[in-house]
């Protein structure tokens, strides 16, 4: 035995799948003028709004897994497009709160519908978005995401 694994590694497959899905989402959202990263922000803001939350940029960065600086850059571009508003956080003068504008909410609702339809197609091999295979896949991905990626993150 040569010591090298046969076939692709799990890490390689996760990377390839994430790239494949990112490109698919970018293409599906292009008619709405959004990128996958912008959608991640807007879709998260939509869900948080429905939960009664108006998050800070830091909170949104933690939620999406994006770097805070990147969230700031995305928020500024979405603000310039009239889709997001940035306002000072009354509880912390150093922080900025984010919210969808009315136009941003309308775009986000359309984008969520587009991405849901796309995800159902992409998840068809697992039984579709509501299939048992997809539910198991989500549980496994969640377990992997909940594991610390660095030793210093250990509880």
How would you explain this protein's 3D organization?
59% of the residues lie in helices and 10% in strands. Strands 1-2 form a two-stranded antiparallel ribbon. The mean pLDDT is 91. It has helices at 10-29, 36-50, 57-64, 68-80, 102-122, 132-146; strands at residues 84-89, 92-100. By secondary structure, the protein is mainly alpha-helical.
Question: Brief overview, please?
Answer:
Helices cover 59% and strands 10% of the residues. The protein has helices at 10-29, 36-50, 57-64, 68-80, 102-122, 132-146; strands spanning 84-89, 92-100.
Keywords:
155 residues; mainly alpha; two-stranded antiparallel sheet; 6 helices; 10% strand
Please give the structural blueprint:
Elements: H1 10-29, H2 36-50, H3 57-64, H4 68-80, E1 84-89, E2 92-100, H5 102-122, H6 132-146
């Amino acid at each position: 035995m040569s010591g090298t694994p046969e076939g692709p590694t799990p890490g390689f497959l996760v990377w390839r799948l994430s790239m494949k899905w990112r490109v698919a989402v970018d293409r599906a959202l292009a008619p709405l003028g959004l990128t996958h990263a912008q959608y991640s922000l807007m879709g998260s803001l939509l869900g948080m709004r429905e939960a009664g939350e108006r998050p800070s940029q830091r909170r949104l960065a933690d939620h999406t897994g994006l770097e805070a600086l990147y969230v700031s850059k995305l928020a500024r571009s979405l603000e310039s497009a009239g889709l997001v508003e940035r306002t000072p956080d009354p509880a912390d003068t150093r922080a900025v709160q984010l919210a969808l504008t009315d136009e941003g909410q309308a775009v986000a609702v359309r984008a969520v519908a587009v991405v849901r339809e796309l995800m159902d197609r992409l998840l068809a091999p697992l039984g579709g978005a509501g299939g048992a295979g997809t539910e198991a896949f989500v549980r496994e991905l969640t377990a992997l995401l909940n594991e610390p990626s660095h030793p210093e993150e250990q509880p």
